[in-house]
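INFO batch 0412 | record 1 of 1 | parsing
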Amino acid sequence: MKKLILMAVMALATVSSFAQQAVGTFTIQPKIGLNLANLTKGDADLRVGLAAGAEFEYQVADIFSLSAGAIYSMQGCKKNISGIDVTSKLDYINVPILANVYVVKGLAVKLGLQPGFNVSHKVSVDKGSTSGSTDIPGVKSVDLSIPVGLSYEYSNFVFDARYNFGVTKVADNADSKNSVFQFTLGYKFAL
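INFO prediction complete | emitting tokens
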């Protein structure tokens, strides 16, 4: 019995010391999910939006990898002002560049830098039967954030949860920065 327990412990220790992919391999991970986005310096509500794209990953060592990708990200915020729904729609193509440390098999802690390129900046107003939208003036074309998160990989499926902490102001005439929780599900393919 003692030998069986010792063998099980050694097997588990060996499994937990390696990353999901072999050292020196490249993978691509298409992913889709949702954002819970808001802007700092305000009392607005979350805007729920789409997050979709792909990330490439290179396994540098057993417990360390680097990844980079492109993700379409619907961001902004919502607010109800005297019965009128106002939604700031700030959509970006984000380019996350991340260091991934695998703390146990399949579980990675992520930290990096993420430039984002604004592709749409509109505000929409909805008051019952009346609605409309217009461009938001002064929105910066490039946004910078720091993504921090965790991912778990099982049978090549990857669940990723991140917080993207905005570093730069969204617009010239405002102090607000992006604040985004992002949850995605992806599938890794070896290249």
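INFO post-check: The chain has one domain: 27-190.
INFO record closed
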